[in-house]
Amino acid sequence: QGQEKLSCNPRKENGSHVVLCELGNPMGGGTQITVDMELSVAGLEDADGAITFHLQLRSKNSPSIVAVTVTVPVEVQAEMELRGKSLPATTVLPAGWQEARGSRRLEDHGVRVEHVYQLHNKGPATVTNVTLRLGVPRELHGRTLLYLLELGTEGSVTCAEPPDLNAMQV
Questions:
Q1: FRET partner for 59 with CA separation of 20 to 30 A, picked from 6, 26, 41, 118?
Q2: Phi, psi at 109, each rounded to 5°
Q3: Where is the Integrin alpha third immunoglobulin-like domain (predicted)?
Q4: Angstrom distance (rounded) from CA 34 to CA 70
Q5: Are 72 and 51 in contact, with CB atoms under 8 Å apart?
Q6: Residues β-bridged to residue 57
Q7: Which pLDDT tens digit goes with each residue over 32-57?
């Protein structure tokens, strides 16, 4: 009939996190109650798609225990944003410019353009083991468009170098 807040106490028992709630004392025989619980659980990034709760109902007056297992699906959500810029932002080559094939001088292969990318987690959850695959157009109509000279990272990021990185050893 009425709503009451439960008094619950968290504790650890045999390596598990246990929450003990007192539902009422004394409670008459045949009493029916409904309990809605809201739990806040940290570290769900590694929950493998679900988290399982083992619920037990027991009376101090009876040795019997009613046990129920509840599995709740977990979906971790995080919004990722890729930011990028090129330095210089615009590059123009003369109309008759030709690449000097076989040359090892950088200026004979065009203007140096640096592309900087930043992957940003907008949350709400943290993320680990993120893979970003970035495709770069290297040729256009059989002619070199971008020559990949080097690849650098900052922080705890690792990158797999493309097999043709600085293929002409410029």
A1: 41
A2: -115, 10
A3: 81-169
A4: 16
A5: yes
A6: 66
A7: 778 787 777 777 766 778 888 888 88
Beta bridge partners of 119: 82
Domain boundaries, the chain: 7-73, 76-169
Q: How far apart are CA 51 and CA 69, in angstroms?
A: 11
In the beta sheet, which residues pair with residue 84?
117
CA–CA distances in Å: residue 137 to residues 31, 103, 132, 145, 155 = 71, 22, 16, 7, 26
Q: CA nearest 61: which of 20, 13, 28, 21?
A: 28
Encoding tokens for residue 13?
A: 């028992």
How far is 24 from 35, CA to CA, in rounded Å? 12
Q: Annotate 27-38 with DSSP letters as a single string.
A: --TT--------
Tokens of 155: 């922080």
Count CB neighbours of 147 within 10 A: 19
pLDDT band per the 50, 70, 90 thresholds, residue 142? confident
Q: Which amino acid is at 107?
A: E
What is the three-class DSSP state of 132?
A: coil
